[in-house]
Design brief:
By secondary structure, this protein is α/β, with parallel strands linked by helices. It has one domain: P-loop containing nucleotide triphosphate hydrolases (Rossmann fold, 3-Layer(aba) Sandwich). It is about 40% helix and about 30% strand. The chain has a five-stranded parallel β-sheet with strand order 1-5-4-2-3, with helices on one face. α3 runs parallel beside α4. It is globular.
């Protein structure tokens, strides 16, 4: 389980994290609509879901995990959220038996 602090090049940071920690696993990158670094990562054949509205990240994230936990072994939530939200999503993934990474605000990490 990981919490990533978003840096200057989040696309490269996420891709490096996926390569290093989720090699050979089926990973979904999940984010808020129109806020994901898609082009670079899509070229790497990463599966994307822009399903979250951003209104209630914890509830939406838990709902997403419940729906897709059987299809993926790992999830990367691209959210730039407070660390408290990240911790709750990581814990929700742990309960479902999937690995979760969440990007958090720089000052929160």
């Amino acid at each position: 389980m990981f919490i990533l602090e978003k840096k200057a090049e989040p696309e490269q940071q996420i891709w490096d994290h996926i390569k290093r920690n989720y090699q050979g696993e089926k990973v979904a990158v999940v984010g808020v609509k129109k806020q994901m670094p898609q082009t670079f990562l899509r070229n790497k054949q990463v599966i994307f879901y822009e399903s979250l509205t951003g209104r209630s990240l914890v509830e939406e994230g838990k709902r997403f995990l419940n729906k897709f936990a059987k299809d993926y072994s790992a999830f990367v939530f691209y959210l730039d959220c407070p660390s408290e939200v990240g911790d709750q999503l990581v814990e929700a993934g742990r309960k479902l038996g999937v690995r979760v990474t969440v990007t958090v605000e720089e000052k929160a990490a």
